[in-house]
Amino acid sequence: MTDLRDSSTTSTSSGAAPSDSQWPLWEVFVQPPKGEAHEHAGSLHAVSAEMALQNARDVYARRGEAVSIWVVPSESITASTPEDMGPFFDPGNDKPYRHPQFYKTPRGVRV
Amino acid sequence: MTAPAFFQYLLRLGDDRLVLGHRVSEWCGHGPILEEDIALANISLDLIGEATLLLKLAGQTEKKGRSEDALAYFRDGIDFRNALIVELPKGDFGFTIVRQYLFSVYSLLQMEGLTRSSNADLAGIASKAVKESRYHVRHCAEWVITLGDGTGESHARVQDALNDMWRYTGELFMADDVDREVAASGLGVDPSTLSDRWNAEVSRVLDEATLAIPKTGYMQRGGREGKHTEHLGHMLSEMQIVARSHPGASW
After folding, report:
1. What domain range is A65 assigned to?
2. Whole-angstrom Cα distance, residue B119 to residue B221?
3. Which of A48, A50, A58 sits opposite B38 (nearest CB)?
4. Number of domains into which chain A is organized
5. Of A7, A59, B174, B197, which one is least surrounded by beta carbons within 10 A?
6. Cβ-Cβ contacts under 8 Å, B150 against chain A
7. What band does A10 get if pLDDT is binned at 50, 70 and 90?
8. Chain A residues with CB inside 8 Å of B32's CB?
9. What CA–CA distance (Å, rounded) separates B65 from B250?
10. CA B162-B238-B233 angle, 5° bins
11. DSSP secondary structure, A27-72, as one string
12. How does pLDDT run across B87-100, given as a tens digit for each residue?
């Protein structure tokens, strides 16, 4: 089964067909009850944004873990690759002065 | 107000949800896609949870020491008071979704009214059920529209389902002495007062789904008096066998 509604009424993200026989993939972010930032919870399949939201509720928030849900078409996410690891992340490791802990706290300042 | 009328009324509320909850549970592991399988299991658990609370209150009202489990597992079909529409076999996914939509709109209107019941326990159960029913309506309406306004095959399947079950919808709104008695005393809701709002909401969604509303002709009835279709007995034999084979067992 693929998209059940005609293209004018669906809000499925456009672009390439899903790579398997499933519906398009969505990434789910849920906000925990204590007001922290949304966190990635997982992914699921849905043919529309509304269905993705409902499925996210049923799959990731049915035991009261969330106060808010975001769903994003997976193909809208641009991700770094494993090859990017060196150039992206290594330069930060040898420059301790980029961390606030590098500096001594002046006397009289409470931490 | 007599206790027997309120007991009967609670049985109707509880049995509608117990029987439909069991029917929906038959989808577990058979849903069209994993996500919808989970959604149906959630709906089923909501309905069975509501039934548990309603039948517990029924047992307390009856004052014969019957627990919710005794009422669910040790009554025969003739003693069930659910409307016929909820005992019909689950059919295909289209049938299940259309029935769930029609019932959930009814349940939402009914439970909204019951939040003002003069019985505090019933009002509390209703406040919980309103939230659940509202979600069921949202989920199922989306599916009715998706399938109705979908492919030729999906449209035909849900239209057939609607045509087949329409004659079972009238019973939900038929009021008898039990309904009138509990409504007059402020304990319950007269179901005949819900039909206009139900028709308005259902027509709106069926229109959007490009589905034709069947002509209203003869309406089946009998469930509220224990006269059921052949399907209920088969369902109960499966639903009750474990409890009856091992009476008193706990797990």
Report:
1. 25-79
2. 28
3. A58
4. 1
5. A7
6. 4-6
7. very low
8. 1
9. 18
10. 60
11. EEEEE-TTS---EEEEEEE-SSHHHHHHHHHHHHSTTS--SEEEEE
12. 999 999 999 999 99
A43, two tokens: 């992914």
Q: Which residues of A17-47 are buried (b: 16+ CB within 10 A; e: fewer)?
A: ebeeeebbbbbbbbbeeeeeeeeebebbbbb
Domain count, chain B: 1
Angstrom distance (rounded) from CA A76 to CA A73: 5
Query: Are A14 and A3 within 8 A, CB to CB?
Result: no
CA distance A5 to chain B (A): 5
CATH code (residue B98): 1.20.1260.10
Question: For residue B188, how far is the Cα from the chain centroid?
Answer: 16
**Residue B251 in domain:** no
* Residue A43 covered by a domain: yes
Report how far residue B131's alpha carbon sits from residue A53's, in angstroms, rounded to the nearest whole number: 17
Q: Report the residue of B36, B146, B205 to disrupt the A interface, i.e. the one with the largest count of A CBs within 10 Å.
A: B146
DSSP state of B216: -
Q: Residues A32-86: pLDDT tens digits?
A: 888 899 999 999 999 999 999 999 999 998 887 789 999 999 999 999 998 888 8
Specify the CATH number for the domain of residue A38: 3.10.20.520
Give the pair of three-digit tokens for residue B172: 């939900």
